[in-house]
Amino acid sequence: MVPWSPSIAEYFDQTVSSGSSRRSLLKLAALLHDICKPQTKALDANGRMRFLGHPETGAEIVQGILERLRFSVKEIKLVTTIVKFHMRPTQLSQDAMPTSRAIYRYFRDVGDASIDTLFMSLADHLATRGPDLILPNWEFHTGLVAYVLKEHLKQKITAPSRLLDGNDLMNVCGMKPGAEMGELLEAIREAQAAGELTTREAALAYARNYLKSSKF
Fold first, then answer.
1. Where do the structural domains in the chain lie, given as residue ranges?
2. What is the pTM of this model?
3. Quick one: pLDDT at residue 162?
């Protein structure tokens, strides 16, 4: 069963910009999401049809279209993000519910379009299968989306509060600002989302071990 609720309906009624709602922009993304399939069509070694890179290339084309039609920056960002990541939900897991790390990375990468993209994936599933819909696969897909939404509401996975910041790494671990610090903070945040770190002390120990075992 599709995980629809009054709160989800309210979410899609939100205005993004220029009077456009999330609902209307999701429909626009659905219309355009496979626009690049003809250009990326190819047969693999087994003779199967593939469309490698069509989400990313499609997002670029869609951006150009929406810019010419004078959509706002916010509208373009939401639609192109949905197009770029429309296959990501089905890649979270193939045979079980996704891990906390996978859910964290999904919301980190897809950002403000995360929920929209989940429902885009459901619509894409139905449109692709049509009358040949395989019920167990559909039930797994809807169950996966429901599970990810439930975990998102907890916020502990998708938006965990910071145990450490850059000042902590500079003052306690002697690090200097830069890309390495950003990588370590992100590693700590992901481990926290996975439930591996729950305290500042544990995060500091993780940081020290990370620095010892890394090239930095």
1. 6-154, 166-213
2. 0.85
3. 86
HSE-CB for 44 with a 13 A CA cutoff: 6
Phi, psi dihedrals of residue 144, rounded to the nearest 5°: -65, -45
Q: Which residues pair with 42 in a beta bridge?
A: 50
Tens of pLDDT, residue by residue over 63-113, are 999 999 999 999 999 999 999 999 999 999 988 999 999 999 999 999 999
* Tokens found for residue 113: 């379009």
Residue 166's Cβ-side half-sphere holds a number of Cα atoms within 13 Å equal to 8
CA dist., res. 181 & res. 166, Å (int): 7
CB 110 within 8 A of CB 84: no
Contact 207, 169 (CB under 8 A): yes
